Amino acid sequence: MRLIKITSLFLFAFSLLFGAETIRKITVIGCEATSPELVRVNSGLEEGRPYSTSKIEDAVKSIYALGNFADVRILTTKTPYGYDIEIRVVELPRVESIEFEGNKKIKDGDLEKEINLVDGSFISDAAIFDAIKKIEKKYNKEGRYDVSVKYELKDGEQKNYKKLIFHIDEGKDLRVKQIKFVGNKEFSDKKLRRQMDTKQRWLLRSGKFDPEKYQQDLQNIEDFYHSKGFITAQITKDTVEKTDKGIFITIYIDEGKKYYLKNISVQGNKIFATDKLMKYFKLEPGDVFNQKKMDESIQNIYLAYSDDGYIHAQVNPEKQISGDSVSVDVSIEEGPQAHIHLINIAGNTRTFEKVIRRELVLYPGDVFRRNLLVVSQRNVYFLNYFEDVVPEFNILQNGDVDITLKVTEKPIGKFQVGAGYNAQDKLTGNISIGWPNVLGRGWTLDLSYEFGKLKNNFSISFTEPWLFDTPTSFGFDLYNTRWTWSGYYTEYRTGGAIRLGRKLWRPRYVSISGRYKLESVKYEDIGSNYTPSPAYDITQIDWPRIESSVLLAIERDSRDSRVFASKGSRNTISFENSGGIIGGQIEFQKLWLKS
Fold first, then answer.
1. Residue 442: inside a domain, yes or no?
2. Count of CB atoms situated within 10 Å of the CB of 434
């Protein structure tokens, strides 16, 4: 009995000593539109966890960061069993409606798209300030630089809701009247204006002033000087004067001296010979020093290293100026060669992972080569299943790399149904189904049916781009068509084709393909309007006839997109033979060159 009492006293003392330093209970008071659980979770406080004043301070900051509250207070009560936490919040008012007054130049809908506030948003001073700045920026881009935006809050119909009204004074529509330069001797004002996107108003030029573009214009002018040998040239001052007549811009330039390249030296390179690295330079001793070309040369050297796995290489140029000459010393720290540890695929909600992986030309364990990553990214994007393909990297402690290829699926496929009526064809219609990524497996299926008095066409096409998980494509086509040309003839074609193709690893972007087609051709109902040619008269031929043909093609396609290509090319040479040893009753040979 005595042992039990001693144990109980010990446990009670233990709870007094240690239980007091833990959080016993958390209560949230004041939430109306916000979930109390959201506040509790974001506070970082948990029942049963240790208590500290620093955690309370962090909790206040975290709850404020939600952007829902005008006031956050945390009260603590110490009990024998731990701390009771009471989180008291006062919610910010919410937006019941947003109105714009005084805006004539820009519509309400366009302004609503600019701001981050919508009906139901919490209204804070920071949110309103941000909205005003975005409205002003929108007006600035439209040439309105004297715009003034104020706001007003009115009580809404619901409790703690406000009507947010922006009062806009659009100001005058000011355009750039004049751009002049001070201090320029080597280049005329006209030459320097050509380096700018900001233009003086004249005829077809609007003369709009965009502050962001103008800042880039100033950088472009300095870059222009640096590319012409004036590597110390700088804009010392600029003024943008807004008057009733327009905007007057004055740019002050210190041109400095014109410099020439004396020599280039490279040190620290072991992987690549100096002679090879020197070939990447776009400048030679005696040339006018061009900073842009020098930067591109340094970048080319780094790309050469990264293409060989040395992504940690550092290429550091240092300029030594003497008189009007510049010597460039390039020091290289090659670093270790990086290998690929893992390749992850993310974002493919519809497409099977292997459909993406089989387009890659680098694999775990390989040396990380930048150029092969670019090719892999292009191959996946070229599938035309994704809006975006973005590689992300995680550099490991040993220098190797984990790659995550993030894709964004886009809506693909088509289903089209149409009908019409005209005096000649009467009722016509069509049904078309195009499915370029069947079941997410990369297959392509096309079905089409057209009907009418003068036509009746059906076709089906299927393609497997990776037969047996190899870069061999297989496909077939089946079709049955009837075309009637009133007064001339009716043409019937029934047939099919089998297709095979192969993508080559070397040379890159090249594929070879072949197709065998077997088709029955027939002409009937030959009318009085038909006039035979001296070489060909369908009335003298026994129909139907069989066309048996083989087509061979070689294609090089380096485009970056099937639909909207911005670089690359597509070149094809193909030859088709019908008849002869292939059989059939129709003979011809065709050679195509397409670029």
1. no
2. 15
